[in-house]
TrEMBL record:
Similarity-based family: Belongs to the short-chain dehydrogenases/reductases (SDR) family.
Top-level lineage group: Bacteria
Signal sequence range: none
Protein name: Short-chain dehydrogenase
Molecular function in Gene Ontology: oxidoreductase activity
């Protein structure tokens, strides 16, 4: 597909990987809309990048419905959804509360589902579209203290495969990017930590992968792309 003039929605687009993707797509001529939960952050990012911003908590159905009402009024359609909103939580199994577990699932799984469902309504109507779910290498293997986060990313991978099977007949490409550790504020916010040694992935690498997946001719698509740092 052509990025120029493409209508692209990026959830969690005000910071980190979402921000970098929004910046890159805007530079290449796309119409970009980011959404996020924090009004100040979304407004500032939208202003910096000269793109559209919308305040929405993707775990809340009404917020997602309002987001897509705005999309229909503004664009009357959509070309790309990048399901990037996500949070982390890392703790020993015996210390993980149901509140901790549910909070991660509400954003990483239910949120992706709600946004994906509304985007799919547009894509099936148009008989074309693109979805990129931002997963993680945590969707491929488990590790200590990762119960809530790993389970959410395994679930996202399963949803990606279901959507792909359902939507291919409507010419919708459903893809997933699985980054390993990326130097953003995600690690610090989730308590996982961050090693800014210059050898780990930056958000720009993930934006490059998303661009490569989308710009492939529509006759084909890359189902999954796992991205590792060469020597972290």
């Amino acid at each position: 597909m052509e990025i120029k003039n493409a209508r692209i929605l990026i959830t969690g687009g005000a910071t980190g990987m979402g921000y970098e993707m929004a910046r890159l797509f805007k530079e290449l001529g796309a119409e970009v809309l980011i959404c996020g939960r924090t009004e100040k952050t979304v407004i500032e990012a939208a202003k910096e990048l000269d793109i559209l911003g919308f305040i929405a908590d993707v775990s809340k159905e009404k917020d997602v419905e309002n987001l897509f009402k705005f999309i229909e009024e503004k664009w009357n359609g959509l070309d790309v959804l990048i399901n990037n909103a996500g949070i982390g939580y890392f703790s020993e199994l015996v210390s993980t509360t149901i509140e901790d577990f549910t909070r991660v699932w509400d954003i990483n799984v239910k949120g992706a589902f709600l946004v994906g469902r509304e985007a799919a309504k547009i894509f099936t109507r148009q008989d074309k579209g693109n979805i990129i779910n931002i997963g993680s290498t945590a969707s491929q293997y488990g590790f200590a203290n990762g119960s809530a986060y790993v389970a959410s990313k395994f679930a996202l991978k399963g949803m990606t495969e279901c959507w792909r099977a359902e939507l291919r007949k409507h010419n919708v490409r459903v893809m997933q990017i699985n980054p390993s550790e990326v130097v953003t504020d995600f690690g610090e916010k989730s308590g996982y930590g961050s090693d800014k040694n210059g050898k780990k992935l930056s958000a720009s690498e993930i934006a490059h992968v998303a661009l490569s997946m989308l710009t492939m001719h529509d006759v084909g698509f890359i189902t999954d792309a796992t991205v590792w740092a060469t020597n972290p």
